[in-house]
Amino acid sequence: MSDCCNVPHQTGITTLNERVPAEATHCAECGGEGRSVARQTVLLHVRSEELARVSDQAYRFCPSPNCQVVYYGDDGERFTVEDVRELVTAKASGDERPLCYCFDFNEGQAREEIARTGKSTIPARISRYIKEGICACEVRNPSGACCLGQVNQTIKRLAEEHKTAVQPIINLRLPE
Q1: In the chain, is it the N or the C terminus that has fewer CB atoms within a 10 Å radius of its CB?
Q2: Domain edges within the chain
Q3: CA distance 13 to 30
C-alpha cells in the first residue's frame, strides 16, 4: 500500500525546481523545523468544522511536543491540537498516546505488555505489517511519516522505566 516506511524522510530538503523560503519551513509559533505533509494528510486529520480552512498551499507538520500547532501552511494558516480529530503522538503523553495509527497501538498497550512479559512485541508486529505492504503512514499518521522509529524510541523508554521501577523490588528480596 505504501513505501513511506522504507524510505528515510528528511526535512528541509527541496529540489532545484522547488524553492521554499527558509521561514516557511519553520513553525511561526515555536520556531521548530517542520516536515512536509500531503494536503490529503491534513484533510484526513483536521476536524470537519475546520476543513474549509484547508487550502491548496503546502503544509508542514510541527513535531515540537511543547507547541500546540500541528500543521502550518506557507501563508501562515495554522491548525492546532484543538483542530484535529485525534491525539497527535508528538503532542500527547500518557497511556492513550498513539504509537501507530495504521494498526492502532498506543503507549498503554506497550506499557502493559512490558509489565506483563518484560518486553513488547509491537515493533516486530508493525515491521511484519510493513513488510506485508499494509501500512499507510503517510496519510494515517498526522506527521505523514512512518511511526516505527518513534515506536522503537518509546518502547526503549518504557522498558527502562519498567526496569527502574522493578529494580528496587528485586533489591528488597530477602536472601535465601
Answers
A1: C
A2: 22-83, 91-170
A3: 20
Per residue in 93-104, pLDDT (tens digit) is 999 999 999 999
Q: Which residues of 125-162 are buried (b: 16+ CB within 10 A; e: fewer)?
A: ebeebbeeeebebbbbbbbbbbbbebbbebbeebbeeb
Can you tell me the distance from the alpha carbon of 39 to that of 55, in angstroms, rounded to the nearest whole number?
8
**Chain centroid offset of residue 55 CA:** 23
Cα–Cα distances (Å) from 167 to 13, 118, 119, 124, 173, in that order, read: 45, 13, 15, 26, 10
- Coil, helix or strand at residue 107: helix
| Pairing relationship of beta strands 78-80 and 98-100 according to DSSP bridges | unpaired
For 22-83, which CATH class? mainly beta
Radius of gyration of the chain measured on its C-alpha atoms:
19
- By percentage, how much of the chain surpasses pLDDT 90? 76
Interval 148-160 mean pLDDT: 96
